[in-house]
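Ligand-bound model needed. iron/sulfur cluster.
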Amino acid sequence: MRLSFALAFPEIYEIAMSHLGIKVLYESLAGRPDVAAERVFCPWLDLMEIMEAEGETPWSLESGRPLGSFDVIGFSLQYELTYTNLLMMLKLAGVPARREERGPAHPLVIAGGPTMVNPEPLADILDLAVVGEAEEIIHPLMDLFIMAKQEAWPRERLYREAVKIEGVYAPALFQPVYQQGRLTEIKALAPEHPVVHRRIVPDMADYPPPQRPILPTVTPVHDRLGVELARGCTRGCRFCQAGFIYRPVRERPAGQVYQAALAGLAAGGLEELALLSLSTSDYSCIEPLAAALMDALEPRRISLSLPSLRMDSLSPELAAQIKRVRKTGFTLAPEAGSERLRGVINKNLSHEQILGTARAVYGMGWNLVKLYFMLGLPTETQEDVAAIGRLASLAASEAKATGRGRGKRPVVNASLGLFVPKPHTPFQWEGQIGLDQSRDRLALAKANLGDSRVKAKWNDAKTSIIEGVLSRGDRRLGAVLLRAVELGCRFDGWSEHLDYQAWLRALADNGLSLDDYLRPREQDEVLPWEHIDVGVSKAYLLAEREKALAGQSTADCRAGRCGDCGVCDHKLIKPRLCPDAELPAPPPAPGEGERLTWRFRLEKTGATRYLGHLEMMRLLERTLRAAGVELAYTQGFHPHALVKTAAALSLGVESLVEVLEVATIRAYDPDQLAARVNALLPPGLRLTDGRPGRPGEKLIDPPVAVYRITPAAPLDPERLDAFHKAEKWTMLRLSPKGQREIDLKAAIRQIELSGHGLLLATASAGGRPKPAEVLTSVFGLSPQAAAASRALKTEAREEEQA
Ligand code: SF4
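Prediction:
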């Protein structure tokens, strides 16, 4: 290993592990023996506080390496409101946030992801930013870092070499010039590189999707295998940044998607596949692909989800495929309530198309339609806002007409968000509405919801406003971000944690205000992202802006009519559609075999003691499938795998003696099965002592559990004496269901100090006290010390006869 690289994600595990980009990089870098790429995610607020108080630092999930000790920290930035988390991660890691304050002993700090099409708010922080698609850049960049490390290059030299790789931006090589508070010039200090061009993967077929998913331990938000169908969308919705910064459309061959999906599902034992792209139903081969995948997945009880469907390209055939497994809410995004405003944003859907799709969706069995709208779009009038409520109500009446959603449950969820003008779109010059206006418009939209079965959801305007500031922000925001962190801002994308007043103060402390960033921009003014070229020309954006104001539409270029946006050279970079849908016959279905049961001793030790029971069971089930074990399932509407333990172990308790029962439809050698599964389980979880189940054998948790406890604080022998002498020792257990008194004298079979620890045997009769409860009640340990004590279950046995 010649370089350590932290794949850093400034969000919590559950969100970071849902993100496809980090998995792509992880698998790509895992193939390099000279680079150790390890994941480091953001600690949640409580752990941040402890880390700050105790001088702890974020560490990598793979080896526990402290973040500050990596050669390079590479942040993946999906959303502007994670910038304060990035700064907090650096702060906790002991890495100075400002580039100028870092020396040769500090890691390089780099970032990539969609927000890097305007990297200026982080320009004082980052050494380098990757603009565009990382697949083509990551390896040349790693080679460069290795060389720079070996030859101890000064940073300045590294920057100058790095920017020779197309798509790499070094903020230190550009200097913004301000006059009277307005940006007037962005000076290139390396004149041979005056502009940074976005890196584009010409053909997605050259980069197959990752196929060896990391099994998550804690359940992620998107707990599924995601396979990217295509990149880019040329529908041309004028508010949509992704539609401009991922051009042109590049579809993967259907065979590659099919193969990667089946391989990834088999390797991860996952229960859901999601086909991902900006507009899934636009994928040329979607119908044959979805049908072939469903033929393979349905017998394996794996569901298929297709997020990001466009209603005007949703065919009945595709809807029928989706319906084979799921009937939860169906999402449609009209974005604007009136046809006029949809014309302005180039989302050219008629009312009839929207209502017709809702009708078809209800008709096929869905009970809920989710509609997405935006408030504050350019040229929006009161009439446009009122039309949102009316359209949602009309969609709800379609449910009635098709006999769906009887009763009082909502049939339409109308989600309302605030329009945020984004760089590199035709609306990059527009103003963004403020808090008061957004409140008025929301009230107007809600007042027009005539149908009681439309439920309106409002995304917090304050988060959108701060997002707007950072999206079109300039280099002056570096100081604002640092001040915001000082004032306590973290997790700003979580509306309940956004401290809006602190942001206003951070701006004011730097002589700035919201207005400086929400205001409309002059067409001839210098924009902070002017030196970043995503490929779409300024002339095209201006022409699109004109067309928007005139209500004129622009057609999708995927089918061949080029609108000359500037991205394609029409040789290497051009729209690429799925060439064919030749797909293999589905693999043989698992079939039905005689149900056989197997018993194992399950060890749960080390860090896995912090896995909740359900999380552990999900992990075990997936690992069994990933190891190729053909599990037996229950019958019925929601079949589930027959993988069970006798009882749920308390969170935080380790055990050597849990019993796991697994039912299969094939015969296995239990030792070989355990070895295959153990090779895939995380350290701490292990199956041993496998044997076939016995006829009529019940899965019963023996009544007495014996623990060896290593306390985190000294245990007072006099308190134990007092316990032994007492006739009754009452402990109060508080739970969400209420409180319960437990007599520990009746529930404890054995309790004695041994060496530096405690031997404890508790019985289920009498409420089975948890080890931590005994430490608190009998020995008076604080709840923190009790929770930090290690309890290892070493035996589970029957009651001894008197
Ligand atoms: S250059 Fe033409 S074909 Fe390429 S993305 Fe732009 S409009 Fe489409």
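Residues 234, 247-248, 557, 562-565, 567-568, 575 surround iron/sulfur cluster (CB under 6 Å).
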